[in-house]
């Protein structure tokens, strides 16, 4: 039973355009969400996070949107650059619920085309 | 600079052998985690620790154990390696139980 779902295994976007990566979750106890970026043969690196008390968080070219009623979040990258080509993982945790680590989605492979 | 390291980076072992993967962090974080990454599964939590002498089971803990004798290290032991444990293993640490986790570079383990 997957609690965090990334339904697009891959996404191809032209350089300079907007990349939108989507994530859905089923566990209503989740209230802290993170996006990680991973290059081959490296560990995941933290990108951006959002608490459930917010619906948007922005950091430079990266913006995360949270729709709690739909249990959906998305990561927007504007403008997309070649170095953004990587696998992106959505992750979630529950504050005060023991926070059993993070629950990850399966990842979306973003390919930025020149 | 603070960092989190894993060793070895690559390991090949035989079925039935005991294997220990090392994880060392210099962030002075209390919280440490072990995940495995498999194609089609993303990252799944194996074990975690919120401090010295504290260990907890994650989603896929069967066949694995950890011990926490100091703040810096959380070694992961496969008691009797199985082919199903062929995977890439990542260690992570965080300042709090819900803050961002910092990941090591990973260990690729092959069980033949």
What does this entry look like structurally?
The complex is a heterodimer of chains A (114) and B (112). With 114 residues, chain A is mainly beta. Chain A has a single domain, classed as Immunoglobulins (Immunoglobulin-like, Sandwich), CATH 2.60.40. Chain A has strands spanning 4-5, 10-14, 19-25, 32-38, 45-51, 56-59, 62-67, 72-77, 86-93, 103-104, 108-113. The radius of gyration of chain A is 14 Å and the shape is globular. The model of chain A has no long low-confidence stretch (mean pLDDT 93). Chain B has strands at 4-7, 10-13, 19-25, 31-38, 42-51, 54-57, 64-66, 76-78, 87-94, 101-103, 107-111. In chain B, β9 (87-94) and β10 (101-103) form a beta hairpin. The chains are: A mainly beta (114), B mainly beta (112). Chain A binds chain B through residues 6, 32, 34, 36, 41-46, 49, 89, 93-95, 98-107, and chain B through 4, 33, 35, 40-45, 48, 56, 58, 90, 92, 97-98, 100-106.
